[in-house]
Input
Amino acid sequence: MLSDSLIHQFLQTQHQKAVNEAESIKLKGKELDHNRDLSSKYMEIETELDKERPKERRKTYTRIAYIADALITLFLTFIGFCLYVGKEQFLIELIKVSLYPILTFAGYYAGTRKRKTKKKKKEDFTPAEVVVD
Output
């Protein structure tokens, strides 16, 4: 029927498959442990970032305020200079030309912000009432 060497080779192959599966299971276990450690470290880092987020937001708003103040000061200085030089007609034309794009952009910006808040409100849901018979 089957020779002893063939049976021996079959048993060795099966033994090696079992050893390989055992090693694979050990490696998967180590990988799971490693992933668990990484996720716990990630959660710690995320917690630290959440603590620092309000401070960073204040810094961002402060920077935006400084830039806006600089632009407004520059614009008012320009208007003052034009009035000092006697270019009132130039200022009137400049305001006429620039007012339409500024108002269009402001309306677009306000509309997109309103749409975003509506989407956020739509995502909020009220849980359904569970009725047990």
In short: The chain has a mean pLDDT of 85. The chain has two helices and no strands.
